Amino acid sequence: MTAITGIWSFNEWEIPVHYGDRMLQQFQGFRYDQVQTIRERRLFLSCSLNWITPQSMGEEIPYYNREKGLAIICNSIIDNREDLYQLLNIRKYERYMITDSQLILYAYEKWGEDCPRFLVGDFVFMIWNDKKQTWFGARDFSGTRTLYFTKNALFFSFASTMGALLTLPEVEDTYNENWIAEYLANPLTIESVDLTSTVYQSIYQIPPSHSITITKHHTQFKQYCHLLEEREPLKLKNDEQYIEAFQELFQKVVDSKLRTFKGKGAHLSGGLDSGTVTAFAAKSLQGEPLHTFSYIPIPKFDDWTPKSRQANERPWIEEMLKLYPTLVPHFLSFSDRNAYTEMDEWLNVIESPYKYFDNTYWLRGIYEQASALDIGILLNGQRGNWTISWGPALDYYASLLKKYRLLHFFKETNSYSIALGVDRKKVWSTIINKKIRASHVNRGHPFPQFIHPAFARQTKVYEKLRDNGIDQAGNGLTNAYQVREKQFNDLYYWHTTGVYGAKMALKYGVIPRDPTDDLRVVRFCLSLPEDQFVKNGFNRAFIRRATKGYLPNLNRLNVKSKGVQGADGLLRLLPNWSSFLNEMEKALNDQRIQYFIDVSVIRNHLKRIQQPQANQVFDDDFRIAMRTLILYRFLIKGGETSDKNLANTHFART
Description:
There is one protein chain. By secondary structure, the protein is an alpha/beta fold. A 6-stranded antiparallel sheet has the order 2-3-1-9-8-10. Strands 4-5-6-7-11-12 form a 6-stranded antiparallel sheet. Strands 16-14-13-17-18 form a 5-stranded parallel sheet, with helices on both faces. α8 packs across α9 and α13 runs antiparallel to α14 (406-420). A hairpin with a 4-residue loop joins β6 (121-129) and β7 (134-139). ATP binds at residue 296.
């Protein structure tokens, strides 16, 4: 992972030397092997390079071809290199050692601003075109890299982190109140539906699936990837051909994700997604060790979750270890950590308030462990639920009923009831209710409205959320198919995952890579007929069939229980509970929080968790308290480091 930064001066303004130095100081805590810099009167570019791939060692980046008038700076791993060799006519003797930045620059020379459409991988890049006097850049389709920027009368500047931009005297660190309003009012784990904005008014970002063109007078975004609009149905002769096509593609994709001279690792739970990724990686490595990192609850945890859930997935993981002897397992519980003690570390890394506190202690812990083992690539299967392991049985059966495909309906539901050991009439009743509810918006239990009413009115946050199809129950969607469509249509769902993965990679030098999120895999899964995903009474049927011989049958055919992570989150926080409550009280008496938060709502919810139970960890009472405290810590941190910020934010309400 490479931390990049740059400044381009307008007119004849000369960039002070200390501007670049201050920006680079923000990268001192990151893991990198080399710093390369271009300094000119009106241009500053710098990369703090972490060598991961064989081609990155000795790479000249930033690179400036003065003859062509093109400069490139990037943080990228390109996966479809073989395809690009052919399309770009790269000579055979050059292919192995050509760098990813060179491939991107050649793609720009050939296709201009259409070049991101031909790239598959994890990337952000910026290209300077001296002849056109423009900057052109792009971020990959799901946002696995970050790139922030600011623009004023003197210069355009960009960086991998917001902190680097905030070192520039001309960049105000005034908070973006619209962003904060969404953070509070949006019940989902996403922070903002506006992906060009950040928590700071003067700092913007390139959204996933977008390119950007910058001139002195104009800033233009363009979405270059529209997955749902571009999908084309795949029609093969039989089920076996679909399985064979997937296995061939997925092996190719996993192989491309393992391109590193360092150690290889993988997140491994007991589920289908991480299991599939790990199995294909183990086969690809052909005896080379693959380190697996698995979260397990703390020893004193008594599983309170229902029978359909499994908080400790170790038995399933151990089945994988029997099947693949070259896996090097690491079972990690991080008993001394919890969401409360992790707060400052995550705020320092993420640089803004966050919502996904449930798993912070083991996510960061795994990055630390992997970094200590000199792991370069850490595989995961985070997007698998929407791609390789898609297949909502009940929603599919409801669609069969709606289409009057009764013979198929009865055959499938009979098999389903046998597999689950559930009475057929109960299954039918559930499906019929689902079909009836499909004509109505199922709002569920409203999420607590703890944003200050005046602040909500001022920012019109609820109107903005409703315009994006989000209500206080989470959304207004009626079935799993609509939810999936929204996952691929609304880019903000995967932006959050990309941000924390990118910034953890900068800090620890371990690159997260998700084959289930690869553009080739996503397009393949979107092209499959729906009956491939639910078949013979099995939900998630396609991946169950595709992993025969890859996964243990205990894991592959498990339909009765599902793993749940973070169920011990509140239990592990109990030793710090009095500190947590004391700090909450301090926060609620602070005018900075009172400006944003309806304090009376928070106090009512806190009453219910004065003596918390382990099974309250996923309750709204705890969730909104944690979101409040995370925002408070962020405001305090800003107040300690910048008088300018507090002076420009009007916390007092008249």
